[in-house]
Amino acid sequence: MPFDDRGLAYGDGLFETVLVRDGVPCLWDEHLARLARGAAALGIPMPSREILEALPPRAGDGLAVLKLVLTRGSGGRGYLPPAPAEPRLRWRAAPFAPAAERWREGVRVRHCRLRLGVQPALAGLKHLNRLENVLARAEWSAPDIAEGVLCDAEGRLVEATCMNLFWWRDGAWWTPRLDRCGVAGTLREALLARGEIRETAAGPEALDAAEAICLGNSVQGLWPVVRLDDAEGRPRGRWPIGARHRMLQARAHDLLGYPVDAMKDVP
User: Is 169 found in the same domain as 244?
Assistant: First the structure.
Protein backbone atom coordinates (compact mmCIF):
# COMPACT_ATOMS: atom_id res chain seq x y z
CA MET A 1 0.00 0.00 0.00
CA PRO A 2 1.68 3.28 -1.06
CA PHE A 3 2.39 5.82 1.65
CA ASP A 4 0.07 8.35 -0.01
CA ASP A 5 -2.90 5.99 -0.22
CA ARG A 6 -5.93 7.81 1.15
CA GLY A 7 -7.18 4.74 2.96
CA LEU A 8 -3.95 4.68 4.96
CA ALA A 9 -3.80 8.44 5.46
CA TYR A 10 -7.46 9.24 6.16
CA GLY A 11 -9.42 6.01 6.38
CA ASP A 12 -10.89 7.01 3.02
CA GLY A 13 -12.26 3.67 1.97
CA LEU A 14 -14.31 0.59 2.76
CA PHE A 15 -13.79 -3.04 3.64
CA GLU A 16 -15.66 -6.33 3.64
CA THR A 17 -14.92 -9.50 5.61
CA VAL A 18 -16.46 -12.53 3.89
CA LEU A 19 -16.83 -16.10 5.09
CA VAL A 20 -15.90 -18.53 2.30
CA ARG A 21 -17.07 -22.14 2.56
CA ASP A 22 -15.57 -24.70 0.17
CA GLY A 23 -14.71 -21.95 -2.30
CA VAL A 24 -18.12 -20.28 -2.18
CA PRO A 25 -18.49 -16.88 -0.42
CA CYS A 26 -21.43 -16.77 2.00
CA LEU A 27 -23.91 -13.88 1.74
CA TRP A 28 -21.91 -12.69 -1.28
CA ASP A 29 -24.75 -10.63 -2.75
CA GLU A 30 -25.27 -8.88 0.59
CA HIS A 31 -21.56 -8.08 0.88
CA LEU A 32 -21.41 -6.69 -2.66
CA ALA A 33 -24.57 -4.64 -2.06
CA ARG A 34 -23.11 -3.08 1.09
CA LEU A 35 -19.82 -2.37 -0.67
CA ALA A 36 -21.74 -0.69 -3.51
CA ARG A 37 -23.76 1.43 -1.04
CA GLY A 38 -20.57 2.53 0.66
CA ALA A 39 -18.81 3.30 -2.62
CA ALA A 40 -21.77 5.40 -3.76
CA ALA A 41 -21.91 7.28 -0.44
CA LEU A 42 -18.17 8.07 -0.50
CA GLY A 43 -18.01 8.73 -4.25
CA ILE A 44 -15.51 5.94 -4.90
CA PRO A 45 -15.87 4.05 -8.21
CA MET A 46 -17.08 0.52 -7.56
CA PRO A 47 -14.99 -2.36 -8.95
CA SER A 48 -16.78 -4.39 -11.59
CA ARG A 49 -18.60 -7.56 -10.62
CA GLU A 50 -16.20 -9.46 -12.88
CA ILE A 51 -13.18 -8.24 -10.91
CA LEU A 52 -14.80 -9.10 -7.59
CA GLU A 53 -16.00 -12.50 -8.77
CA ALA A 54 -12.43 -13.39 -9.80
CA LEU A 55 -11.05 -12.93 -6.30
CA PRO A 56 -9.84 -16.08 -4.52
CA PRO A 57 -10.46 -18.31 -2.74
CA ARG A 58 -12.82 -19.94 -5.19
CA ALA A 59 -11.59 -23.50 -4.84
CA GLY A 60 -10.64 -25.89 -2.09
CA ASP A 61 -12.38 -27.35 0.92
CA GLY A 62 -13.01 -25.89 4.33
CA LEU A 63 -13.49 -22.39 5.70
CA ALA A 64 -11.60 -19.20 4.94
CA VAL A 65 -12.11 -15.49 5.48
CA LEU A 66 -11.66 -13.18 2.52
CA LYS A 67 -10.99 -9.54 3.43
CA LEU A 68 -11.44 -6.88 0.76
CA VAL A 69 -10.16 -3.32 1.17
CA LEU A 70 -11.26 -0.65 -1.30
CA THR A 71 -9.67 2.80 -0.98
CA ARG A 72 -10.02 5.96 -3.03
CA GLY A 73 -6.40 5.47 -4.07
CA SER A 74 -3.69 8.11 -4.03
CA GLY A 75 -3.81 11.81 -4.75
CA GLY A 76 -5.71 14.93 -3.88
CA ARG A 77 -4.58 17.94 -1.90
CA GLY A 78 -5.04 17.41 1.81
CA TYR A 79 -8.54 16.15 2.43
CA LEU A 80 -9.75 17.20 -1.02
CA PRO A 81 -10.44 13.98 -2.96
CA PRO A 82 -8.81 13.57 -6.37
CA ALA A 83 -11.06 13.89 -9.40
CA PRO A 84 -11.29 11.48 -10.95
CA ALA A 85 -10.34 8.93 -8.31
CA GLU A 86 -8.28 5.88 -9.17
CA PRO A 87 -9.46 3.41 -6.52
CA ARG A 88 -7.23 0.70 -5.15
CA LEU A 89 -8.57 -2.77 -4.32
CA ARG A 90 -6.60 -5.13 -2.09
CA TRP A 91 -7.57 -8.53 -0.70
CA ARG A 92 -6.26 -11.32 1.48
CA ALA A 93 -7.66 -14.75 2.32
CA ALA A 94 -6.79 -16.85 5.36
CA PRO A 95 -8.01 -20.17 6.81
CA PHE A 96 -10.63 -19.75 9.51
CA ALA A 97 -12.17 -21.69 12.38
CA PRO A 98 -15.18 -20.20 14.23
CA ALA A 99 -15.48 -20.12 18.03
CA ALA A 100 -17.90 -23.06 18.15
CA GLU A 101 -17.89 -23.23 21.94
CA ARG A 102 -19.53 -19.81 21.99
CA TRP A 103 -22.40 -21.16 19.89
CA ARG A 104 -22.98 -23.91 22.44
CA GLU A 105 -22.19 -22.22 25.75
CA GLY A 106 -23.01 -18.59 25.08
CA VAL A 107 -20.93 -15.56 25.98
CA ARG A 108 -20.46 -12.92 28.64
CA VAL A 109 -20.54 -9.33 27.37
CA ARG A 110 -20.30 -5.86 28.91
CA HIS A 111 -21.39 -2.33 28.25
CA CYS A 112 -18.70 0.03 26.94
CA ARG A 113 -17.99 3.51 28.28
CA LEU A 114 -17.23 4.85 24.81
CA ARG A 115 -20.13 6.38 22.90
CA LEU A 116 -20.35 6.30 19.11
CA GLY A 117 -20.57 9.61 17.30
CA VAL A 118 -23.80 10.27 15.40
CA GLN A 119 -23.12 10.69 11.66
CA PRO A 120 -26.04 9.69 9.41
CA ALA A 121 -23.94 10.19 6.25
CA LEU A 122 -21.82 7.18 7.26
CA ALA A 123 -24.48 5.15 9.08
CA GLY A 124 -24.53 1.48 8.12
CA LEU A 125 -21.31 1.60 6.09
CA LYS A 126 -18.29 -0.57 6.78
CA HIS A 127 -15.80 2.23 6.24
CA LEU A 128 -12.16 2.22 7.28
CA ASN A 129 -12.61 4.76 10.11
CA ARG A 130 -12.93 2.29 12.99
CA LEU A 131 -11.06 4.11 15.79
CA GLU A 132 -14.19 4.20 17.94
CA ASN A 133 -14.35 0.40 17.83
CA VAL A 134 -10.64 0.14 18.57
CA LEU A 135 -10.97 2.35 21.65
CA ALA A 136 -14.07 0.50 22.83
CA ARG A 137 -12.37 -2.87 22.47
CA ALA A 138 -9.39 -1.60 24.47
CA GLU A 139 -11.65 -1.10 27.52
CA TRP A 140 -11.24 -4.72 28.65
CA SER A 141 -8.74 -7.54 28.37
CA ALA A 142 -10.44 -10.31 30.39
CA PRO A 143 -10.61 -13.37 28.10
CA ASP A 144 -14.00 -14.45 29.47
CA ILE A 145 -15.64 -11.25 28.16
CA ALA A 146 -16.40 -11.84 24.50
CA GLU A 147 -17.81 -8.50 23.38
CA GLY A 148 -18.78 -4.95 24.35
CA VAL A 149 -22.15 -3.28 23.75
CA LEU A 150 -22.05 0.23 22.27
CA CYS A 151 -24.52 3.11 22.50
CA ASP A 152 -24.39 6.35 20.53
CA ALA A 153 -23.70 9.79 21.97
CA GLU A 154 -27.42 10.22 22.70
CA GLY A 155 -27.70 6.96 24.62
CA ARG A 156 -29.30 4.70 22.01
CA LEU A 157 -28.24 1.10 21.50
CA VAL A 158 -26.24 0.56 18.30
CA GLU A 159 -24.18 -2.63 18.15
CA ALA A 160 -21.32 -4.55 19.72
CA THR A 161 -17.71 -3.73 18.87
CA CYS A 162 -17.64 -6.15 15.91
CA MET A 163 -21.09 -7.77 15.89
CA ASN A 164 -24.70 -6.76 15.57
CA LEU A 165 -27.09 -6.94 18.52
CA PHE A 166 -30.43 -8.77 18.80
CA TRP A 167 -32.88 -9.21 21.69
CA TRP A 168 -36.21 -10.98 22.19
CA ARG A 169 -39.08 -9.12 23.80
CA ASP A 170 -42.85 -8.91 23.29
CA GLY A 171 -42.92 -11.88 20.96
CA ALA A 172 -40.26 -10.73 18.47
CA TRP A 173 -36.53 -10.40 17.86
CA TRP A 174 -35.35 -6.78 17.70
CA THR A 175 -32.18 -5.06 16.52
CA PRO A 176 -31.15 -1.39 16.81
CA ARG A 177 -32.03 0.90 13.92
CA LEU A 178 -28.78 1.99 12.23
CA ASP A 179 -29.76 5.27 10.59
CA ARG A 180 -27.42 7.39 12.77
CA CYS A 181 -24.24 5.30 13.10
CA GLY A 182 -23.05 1.71 13.28
CA VAL A 183 -22.36 -1.05 10.76
CA ALA A 184 -25.24 -2.79 9.01
CA GLY A 185 -23.92 -6.33 9.05
CA THR A 186 -24.71 -8.64 6.16
CA LEU A 187 -26.09 -11.35 8.44
CA ARG A 188 -28.34 -8.72 10.02
CA GLU A 189 -29.45 -7.59 6.55
CA ALA A 190 -30.29 -11.14 5.52
CA LEU A 191 -32.29 -11.76 8.71
CA LEU A 192 -34.18 -8.50 8.20
CA ALA A 193 -34.97 -9.40 4.60
CA ARG A 194 -36.37 -12.74 5.73
CA GLY A 195 -38.53 -11.17 8.44
CA GLU A 196 -36.70 -12.86 11.30
CA ILE A 197 -35.89 -9.60 13.13
CA ARG A 198 -37.31 -6.08 13.37
CA GLU A 199 -35.62 -2.70 13.79
CA THR A 200 -36.28 -0.30 16.64
CA ALA A 201 -34.73 2.65 18.48
CA ALA A 202 -34.05 1.76 22.12
CA GLY A 203 -31.82 2.54 25.04
CA PRO A 204 -29.79 0.05 27.10
CA GLU A 205 -32.76 -0.55 29.39
CA ALA A 206 -34.23 -2.64 26.56
CA LEU A 207 -31.57 -5.26 27.25
CA ASP A 208 -32.38 -5.29 30.95
CA ALA A 209 -35.98 -6.21 30.10
CA ALA A 210 -35.10 -8.66 27.32
CA GLU A 211 -36.02 -12.33 27.55
CA ALA A 212 -33.04 -13.34 25.39
CA ILE A 213 -30.06 -11.58 23.78
CA CYS A 214 -27.76 -12.66 20.93
CA LEU A 215 -24.82 -11.19 19.05
CA GLY A 216 -24.02 -12.10 15.47
CA ASN A 217 -22.05 -11.43 12.33
CA SER A 218 -21.47 -13.11 8.99
CA VAL A 219 -18.16 -14.69 10.02
CA GLN A 220 -18.72 -15.96 13.57
CA GLY A 221 -22.42 -16.74 13.31
CA LEU A 222 -24.72 -16.21 16.30
CA TRP A 223 -23.67 -16.20 19.96
CA PRO A 224 -26.26 -16.42 22.76
CA VAL A 225 -25.58 -13.92 25.57
CA VAL A 226 -25.72 -15.54 29.01
CA ARG A 227 -24.43 -12.60 31.06
CA LEU A 228 -24.36 -8.82 30.58
CA ASP A 229 -22.20 -6.59 32.80
CA ASP A 230 -22.07 -2.83 33.18
CA ALA A 231 -18.93 -0.90 32.24
CA GLU A 232 -17.51 -1.51 35.72
CA GLY A 233 -17.88 -5.28 35.51
CA ARG A 234 -20.96 -5.59 37.73
CA PRO A 235 -23.57 -8.11 36.53
CA ARG A 236 -26.59 -6.46 34.97
CA GLY A 237 -28.41 -9.51 33.68
CA ARG A 238 -28.14 -13.28 33.23
CA TRP A 239 -30.03 -15.54 30.82
CA PRO A 240 -30.13 -19.32 30.38
CA ILE A 241 -29.79 -20.48 26.80
CA GLY A 242 -33.23 -21.45 25.58
CA ALA A 243 -35.40 -22.14 22.61
CA ARG A 244 -35.52 -18.48 21.54
CA HIS A 245 -31.73 -18.33 21.20
CA ARG A 246 -31.64 -21.57 19.25
CA MET A 247 -34.45 -20.45 16.97
CA LEU A 248 -32.58 -17.35 15.79
CA GLN A 249 -29.29 -19.23 15.74
CA ALA A 250 -30.82 -21.84 13.45
CA ARG A 251 -32.04 -19.14 11.04
CA ALA A 252 -28.66 -17.39 11.03
CA HIS A 253 -26.54 -20.52 10.76
CA ASP A 254 -28.63 -21.80 7.88
CA LEU A 255 -27.45 -18.74 5.93
CA LEU A 256 -23.80 -19.48 6.75
CA GLY A 257 -23.77 -23.27 6.67
CA TYR A 258 -22.97 -23.57 10.36
CA PRO A 259 -24.53 -26.28 12.57
CA VAL A 260 -27.00 -25.73 15.39
CA ASP A 261 -26.40 -27.91 18.42
CA ALA A 262 -29.34 -29.98 19.65
CA MET A 263 -30.75 -28.57 22.89
CA LYS A 264 -31.52 -30.66 25.91
CA ASP A 265 -34.14 -29.76 28.50
CA VAL A 266 -35.28 -26.67 26.63
CA PRO A 267 -38.99 -25.86 27.08
Answer: yes
Looking at the fold, whether 141 and 31 belong to one and the same domain comes out as no
Chain-centroid distance, C-alpha 264: 30
Residue type for position 120:
P
Residues designated catalytic = 17, 126, 159
pLDDT tens digits, residue range 20-77?
999 999 999 999 999 999 999 999 999 999 999 988 766 678 999 999 999 999 998 8
- Verify that 82 and 162 share a domain, yes or no: no
The rounded distance, in Å, linking the Cα atoms of 84 and 30 is 27
Q: Which structural domain range is residue 151 located in?
A: 100-256
